Amino acid sequence: MRERGIGRWIVAIPMALLALATIYPMVFTLNVAMKSRREYVLDRFSLADHLTAANIADAWNSSGLGRYTFNSVLVTAGSVALLLLLGSMAGYAFSQLTFRGRRWLFLVCLGALMIPFQVIMVPFFRVLGQIHLLDTHVGLILAYTGQFLPFTIFLMTSFYSRIPAEVVEAARVDGSTTLGVYRRIMLPLGRPALLSVGILNALFCWNDVLISLLVMQSEQHRTLMVGVTALRGQYSDNIPLFAGGVLVAALPVIAIYLFFQRQITDGVTAGSTKG
């Protein structure tokens, strides 16, 4: 019993330190956002004298964060919808259908997971420019879809591989076509995986800066994360205002983590087991 108790402490102490290291930056940012500029200059680490949301309101009203938020919501929703549609179809095909080159195509998708975006950034930019999709919402949606589709296909294939082949065969015996099996069997059974993968992809798209900065070149088309990054240079002498903008960008992500912790964990571990 003593050895078991010591083992728990050995695990609990590093995990507690890791949790503290994760929570402290958020608490510090919240505290700074509640300060006036004078309070921050006098002592940046002290607690705010008065709790006020003035900096958050100023960041929202004077910095265009409302427009940036709309851009982020539009692009994220469009990208996630397209990713779930294509990823679920491809996962169904790779896991339940038999066709020539299936294994090789799936290996190509896995190989795409290993290629960093920085490697293809230059040709990617040139191709988008040639088809006139730079600085457009459609261009960014397609960019996110291409970047995160291999990950989506991998997780959906892993999930659909757990569904017994007898279920699909029974549906075909009843007269369902390949598309009918996908619509009536695979989509309903795949709801847990679709929810998990959708949440993960939403977080990826929402938090992205590099791809959005590359595609969206005009200020009016910026996404929220790029807009908040620009605040650092625009308000370098007003750190509390910048902290307010950071909170605006972080709150949706924090809310998603709080409400969908189980689904996020299931999505991360979807491909770890089979059977």
TrEMBL record:
Pfam families named among the record's database cross-references: BPD_transp_1
Which stretch is the leader sequence? none
Q: Which SUPFAM superfamilies match?
A: MetI-like
Q: Which UniProt keywords apply?
A: Cell membrane, Membrane, Transmembrane, Transmembrane helix, Transport
Where are the membrane-spanning stretches?
Answer: 12-34, 68-92, 104-125, 137-156, 193-216, 239-260
Give the bilayer topology: Multi-pass membrane protein
Q: Where does it live in the cell?
A: Cell membrane
Chain ranges of the ABC transmembrane type-1 domain: 69-260
Superkingdom in the source lineage? Bacteria
Q: What family does this belong to? A: Belongs to the binding-protein-dependent transport system permease family.
Per its record, how is this protein called by name? Carbohydrate ABC transporter permease
Please give the organism: Kribbella speibonae
The upper taxonomy is: Bacteria, Bacillati, Actinomycetota, Actinomycetes, Propionibacteriales
